[in-house]
Amino acid sequence: MNNENGDIQSEFERFVTLVAEAAIAVDVSEEEQVRLKKEIGMELSALALRFDRVGPVLAYGASRYLLPAADQGDPEAAYEVAELCVHAENSNGLEDGFDYYKIAASKGHAQAIYQLARCYLTGQGPSMDLDRAAELFAEAKRLGADVDPDHLEFEDLTPEQKRVMRWSFGGGKR
């Protein structure tokens, strides 16, 4: 068994353990149920997002467990739901994850703020707003979002959009 298969096996075993814990925890508080569902959803999401495109069954399963926490404003759960929406087969990309990125971003989730900035930069989800995109890119950078501006996947940007990107990450004029 190669290392990647070992990692998947380990993740799957952790997921099965969480499901078993949730199944026996029938007499727990609603808060504990939401926490357990979030953990299950995070594990399912991690498995689902290891593939290039997320299949609808796995995305639905992970989202189903993550939504209670996401809808209560949990930033990690909201971010995972957004990522599942974006990467799911038959997805409209950033548009499908926009509302959940907003929830996570409102709680200071750096990667969600970065993704929200991408939405404003490209007009996917909201209307295009380059000033808002620049503000959000700068905020994401300040909060330590994991972004390398040299490796961004924005081949189809206009010159103005590219200027926003360069300015947001510390290079060039706005």
What does this protein structure show overall?
The protein has 174 residues and is mainly alpha-helical. It has 2 domains: 1-93; 108-174, no CATH class. The protein is built from 8 helices and no strands. It has helices spanning 3-24, 30-48, 56-71, 75-87, 94-106, 110-122, 130-142, 159-168. The longest helix has 22 residues, at 3-24. It starts with a helix and ends in a 6-residue tail after the last helix.
List the helices and strands and how they pair.
Elements: H1 3-24, H2 30-48, H3 56-71, H4 75-87, H5 94-106, H6 110-122, H7 130-142, H8 159-168
Any idea how many domains? 2
Distance between the termini: 51 Å
**Number of strand segments:** 0
The low-confidence parts are: none
Shape: elongated
Q: How many H/I helices?
A: 8
Fraction of residues in β-strands: under 5%
Return the string of H and E elements: HHHHHHHH
Largest sheet: none
User: Any idea what the radius of gyration is?
Assistant: 18 Å
Give the averaged pLDDT, no decimals: 78
State the helical fraction.
55-70%
Report the structural category. Answer: mainly alpha
Using brief descriptors, characterize the structure shown:
mainly alpha; 2 domains; elongated; about 170 residues
Quick overview:
Helix content is 68%, strand content 0%. It is mostly helical and 174 residues long.
